[in-house]
Amino acid sequence: MLDERPTASELVAAVADFLEREVGPALDGRLAFHTKVAANALRIVERELAAGPAAAEGDRVRLRELTGSEGDLRTLNALLAQRIRAGELPAEDPALRDHLVRSVLSRIAIDNPRYPSLREAEGYWPPLP
Amino acid sequence: MSAIDGEAVAGLLATVLPAPVVVDRMVPLTGGASADTWSLDVVDAAGGAHPLIVRRGAGRGGVSLGLDARLEPLVQRAAGNASVPTAEVIAIFDDSVLGTGYVMRRLSGETIPRKLLRDPAYAAALSRLAGDCAAALAAIHAAPLDRLPAMPELPAAEQLDLLESLHRSIGQPVPTFELGLRWLHDNLPPPGRLCLVHGDFRMGNFLLDERGLVAVLDWELAHLGDPMEDIAWLCTRAWRFGGRGAVGGFASREDFYQAYGEVDPGRVHFWAVLSALKWGIICQLQSFVHLRGELPSVERAVIGRRVTEAELDLLLVLEERHA
Predict the structure, then answer these.
(1) pTM greater than 0.90
(2) Cβ neighbours of B118 in A, within 8 Å
C-alpha cells in the first residue's frame, strides 16, 4: 500500500459517501436503487482494503496445512474443492469444517458484516481468535 | 426490454373482453429478474375498466432454471383451479408481434418483504400468514396432476445434478459448495411422490393486503417434485428478510407445520441444504452473467459477493442436523 493521503480506502469511502448522500437522494426508482447498490459495492471494497490481506493470509495458512501443498489462494482453493469432490477429505472432517467456518466468517465481515445469520453463527461458533 | 405493441394487446384482449378494447395506460414494472412485466389499464366497449399485468418470458439472462414462458400461465391457471389464491390469467399469447407471455388481472396489495414485516398496517395479515401460506401450499401440493400441463420433473437427484452442472459451468470453485454437493450426494433421500411444486414459494412472491394473503405470484420455477422442497425453500435464511421465525421470517416451524399437515423433517433438512446451495449458485450465476459481459449490471456484479452469505447459511444448515 502506498503512503499517500487520501489512502485508497479513504478515496473509496469518499465516493461511497457521495453516492449515498448526494446522488441517491436526487434520484428515484431504478437509478436510486442501483446507486444504493453501487455504494454498497464500494463499502465492500473499503472493508476488503482494510481486512482482506489478513483474511487471505489466514486462508492460505490453513489451506497449506489442509492440502499439504503450496501455491496461491486460487490454486489452493481449487485443490481443496477437488479433494472434497473426490471424497479424499470427508465432509465431516473437523479440520475441514474449522477451516471453512473461519474462512467464511472472515469473508462475511468484508462482504456483509450485518448479515442476520451472523447472530446465529455466534451460537455455534463463538467469536474466533 | 422492448416496448409492447399497444394495438396488438388491445386486439388480443378484444377476444376475451367486450370489443373494442382501448389501452389507457401501459408502464413497465421492475421486479422479476428474468421476465419483463408491464402494468396495463384497459377499458372495454361496455366502459368496464380492467387493471391488468402483462408478463413476457423474454431475456432469461442466461440462468435457465425457469419454465417455458408458454407453460407458466397454464400452471398458474391450474393452481387457481385447485383453490390456490392466484391472479386470474385472462389471455395467453405466443406470436411474432407480442412475443410469448400472458395477461392476468392486477390485484392490489403489497409484496415488498421488508415492508410487510415491519409496517404495522400488515400486523394482522402477518399474524395469519402462517395459516394462509400453509393452506395455499397444501393446495398447491394437492393439485390434481392430470389437470396440469406437461411439466419438467425435478425430484432431488435431478436437481442435484442440475445444480452441480450449473456450478461446474462457471469454473470458479467454492470449497463450501463442494462440501454441500458431497453431503447432498451422500444423503440423497429415496424417491417419493411427485406433486406440483411452486419452486419459489417465499416472501416477495406473496401478495398481501391488510387482511391476509391475496395471491401467490411468480410461477416460472414451477415443476413436478418433492413437496418438502417448497417448505425448505420458504425456510431458507436468504428469504427471512431480517424477520423473526424460521419460516419466511414470519412464523415458527411448529405453527407452520401444524397448519400445513404432514411434514417429513428429514426430507425438509435435505432440501434445506440443497436450498442454501441453490441460492448460492444462483448468486454465482447472476454475477457471472455480468462478469462474462452478457448482461452487465452493477446489481449482478454485487450479488456475486452474496455467495459468502449462502456459504455461511449452508454451514449453519449442516450444523442444525446435530441440534
Answers:
(1) yes
(2) none
